[in-house]
Write a structure and sequence with these properties.
- The complex is a heterodimer of chains A (about 350) and B (about 140).
- Chain A is mainly beta and about 350 residues long.
- Chain A contains two helices and 19 strands.
- Chain A has a 16-stranded antiparallel barrel.
- Helix content of chain B is about 40%, strand content about 15%.
- In chain B, strands 3-2-4-1-5 form a five-stranded mixed sheet, with helices on both faces.
- Classes of the chains: A mainly beta (about 350), B alpha/beta (about 140).
- The interface of A and B includes residues 42, 86, 91, 186 and 217 of A.
Chain lengths: ~350, ~140
C-alpha cells in the first residue's frame, strides 16, 4: 500500500468516525432496516445483503530505555462477515501490521505485511454442535480470541497469551454449548493436519494441531476455561503438550482476569524442557470513561529457560466504547526473550496507543 | 402532631420515589416451541449464545430501543449486565462476527416483527398483548 492510499484510507476512517450516524448510535443495537447503516464499533451493513464490514485501526507509541522512541501505525484490520442462508455463515479478516513507523530522530520505515488473519465458514447444526472450517484463532485462553487492541485493556500483550502456542489453526473446529447439572458450558475442539492459510501470522507455527478448550459460563460475570492442546512446531519439529487455566470475573466497575499455561516440550534433538507462565490483571473504573489497570506477568521460556517478569501499570480512556486511548508503564526483568514480532527485553518502557473498532 | 408529620412525610416519600415498573412484561413469539422458556434461556438468546430453536429454526430476538423503559426492565431481569458491560460484550462479539439483536422502534413494531419473521421473539407490555400472539414467558416486577 503506498503512502497516498494510506492517507486516503485514513481520511475515510476519520470521516466514518466523525459522521453523524456514529455520533447518534446506540451502541449494542442492530437496526436492520437502515440500508448501508454504519455504527462505530459495529460495522457497516452492506445494503441488500446479510453481510457486514468491520475492522480496527491501532497507533502505537513505545519509548524504551536505550532505544529510540517510535510512533507507528501498528495495525489496520478489515473484516467481512455474514450469513449464507439460515444455517451457515462466513468470516474473513485481512490485517496489515507494522505499516508505518517514525522514530524520535525522524527516520521512517514503511512495510507491507498484509496477512489473512482469519478465513472460515460455519455450519450451525445445532446449539450443541457447530462446525467451522478454515483459519481461526486457537482456543487457548480468552485473550487470544479477542486480542484486537480496541478490546484489550493494555497496549502490551502478556507473553503467556501467545508465546507458547500457535495463535491460529487452519483446519476443522467443532464448538457449541451444553448444560450439565444446571451449569452452562461452552466447548471448542480443533484439529489441523495441513499447511496453514497464510503461514506468516503468529510467533509459533504448526501444521499439526489437536486440542480444545472447555469454558464454564458461571454466574453473569464469571467464566473459567481450561485448554488442552498438542501441536508439532513447524520446521523445528518440537512436540508440545500444553494445558492451563483462565478466568474472567467482572463486577462493575471492577474486572479481574488471568491466564496460566504449562507446556511440556519434547525437543526434536531429544530431551524435554518446560515452558510455563501466567498473568493476573485487575481493572478498576475510576469514572465512566477512565479506568486504571495493573498487571503482573511471569513467563519461563523454553528457549534458554529464562524467567521473565513484568509489572504493568496503565490508564485507559474510552470517550466512546469503541474508541480507546491507553498509556502504560512497564518494568521488566529476566533477560532477552525472542518472540518474533517483538523481543522482550529488560528495563522500563512507556507505551501508549490509540485504537478504534470500526 | 408527630403522627400527622410522619404520615405527611411518608406520603411525600411515596410520591417522590421513582415510579416502579407497574405493568407485566410478556415475551412473545409466533414460533411453535416446546422448550421451557426461562430467564436464563432468554439471557442466552439475547446474548446470541443460543441461536437455534429445537427444530433448528434460527432464533431472531428483537429489542426495543435503548431509551425504552421496557427494555431497561427486560435487560435488568434477564441479562443482569449494566449498559457499559453490554456494549463491551457486543464490541467483542462484533470482532467475532456476531450481531446484536435487531432493534425496532415500538411495541407495535415488535408485534409486527414477531408475526412476520420466522423464528422471531420479542417482548411487550402485557397490556398490549393481542390474541394471536403466543406468550412464552412472563416477567413481573419484583419476581
Amino acid at each position: 500500500m503506498n503512502i497516498s492510499l494510506k492517507r486516503t484510507f485514513l481520511f475515510l476512517l476519520l470521516f466514518l468516525f466523525l459522521s453523524p450516524a456514529s455520533a447518534q448510535s446506540e451502541h449494542g443495537d442492530n437496526d436492520e432496516r437502515e440500508p448501508w447503516s454504519y455504527r462505530l464499533g459495529e460495522g457497516l451493513r452492506i445494503d441488500g445483503t446479510h453481510f457486514y464490514l468491520g475492522g480496527y485501526i491501532n497507533f502505537k507509541y513505545i519509548d524504551a530505555e536505550e532505544k529510540r522512541a517510535t510512533l507507528a501505525l501498528e495495525n489496520l484490520s478489515l473484516f467481512v462477515f455474514g450469513d449464507i442462508g439460515e444455517r451457515s455463515r462466513f468470516f474473513a479478516e485481512l490485517e496489515d501490521e507494522e505499516i508505518f513507523e517514525v522514530d524520535s530522530k525522524g527516520e521512517t520505515e514503511s512495510e507491507n505485511n498484509v496477512r489473512i488473519e482469519r478465513l472460515y465458514a460455519d455450519y450451525l447444526y445445532s446449539d450443541h454442535l457447530k462446525v467451522r472450517v478454515g483459519k481461526f484463532f486457537t482456543p487457548v485462553g480468552a485473550w487470544n480470541e479477542t486480542h484486537a487492541p480496541p478490546l484489550t485493556w493494555t497496549v502490551s500483550r502478556p507473553i503467556v497469551t501467545f508465546a507458547s502456542f500457535p495463535e491460529d489453526v487452519t483446519g476443522l473446529q467443532l464448538f457449541g454449548n451444553f448444560t450439565l447439572l444446571d451449569e452452562d458450558f461452552f466447548y471448542t475442539l480443533a484439529a489441523q493436519r495441513m499447511e496453514s492459510i497464510d503461514e506468516e501470522t503468529g510467533f509459533r507455527r504448526t501444521h499439526e494441531f489437536a486440542g480444545g478448550r472447555l469454558r464454564w459460563l458461571g454466574s453473569p460475570g464469571l467464566e473459567i476455561g481450561v485448554p488442552l492442546i498438542y501441536y508439532e512446531e513447524y520446521e523445528i519439529k518440537d512436540k508440545i503438550h500444553l494445558t492451563g487455566l483462565d478466568f474472567i470475573y467482572k463486577s462493575s466497575p471492577f474486572e479481574l482476569r488471568g491466564e496460566a499455561s504449562y507446556a511440556d516440550v519434547t525437543l526434536e534433538q531429544g530431551g524435554k524442557v518446560k515452558e510455563y507462565g501466567y498473568y493476573l490483571q485487575g481493572v478498576s473504573g475510576i469514572t465512566e470513561r477512565l479506568s486504571i489497570v495493573l498487571r503482573y506477568d511471569f513467563f519461563h521460556a523454553r528457549e534458554g529457560e529464562k524467567h521473565h517478569e513484568s509489572v504493568t501499570t496503565g490508564l485507559v480512556y474510552k470517550p466512546s466504547p469503541p474508541v480507546v486511548f491507553k498509556i502504560e508503564c512497564q518494568e521488566r526483568s529476566g533477560g532477552l526473550i525472542y518472540t518474533g514480532e517483538e523481543s522482550i527485553d529488560d528495563g522500563e518502557r512507556l507505551l501508549a496507543s490509540f485504537s478504534v473498532l470500526l | 402532631m408527630i403522627k400527622r408529620f410522619l404520615f405527611i412525610t411518608a406520603s411525600l416519600l411515596m410520591f417522590a420515589a421513582p415510579s416502579a415498573f407497574s405493568a407485566e412484561l410478556v415475551v412473545i413469539s409466533s414460533h411453535e416451541t416446546s422448550e421451557k422458556i426461562s430467564s436464563k434461556l432468554l439471557r442466552k438468546i439475547y446474548l446470541k449464545r443460543k441461536i437455534l430453536w429445537q427444530d433448528k429454526t434460527r432464533i431472531v430476538p428483537v429489542n426495543l430501543p435503548a431509551r425504552s423503559s421496557l427494555r431497561a426492565f427486560f435487560t435488568k431481569e434477564t441479562l443482569h449486565m449494566d449498559h457499559k458491560d453490554l456494549v463491551l460484550y457486543w464490541n467483542e462479539q462484533h470482532y467475532k462476527g456476531v450481531r446484536p439483536p435487531v432493534v425496532v422502534e415500538s411495541e407495535e413494531a415488535v408485534k409486527a416483527f414477531v408475526r412476520e419473521v420466522k423464528g422471531a421473539l420479542g417482548y411487550i407490555n402485557a397490556d398490549s398483548l393481542e390474541p394471536d400472539l403466543k406468550v412464552l414467558y412472563r416477567i413481573r416486577e419484583g419476581e
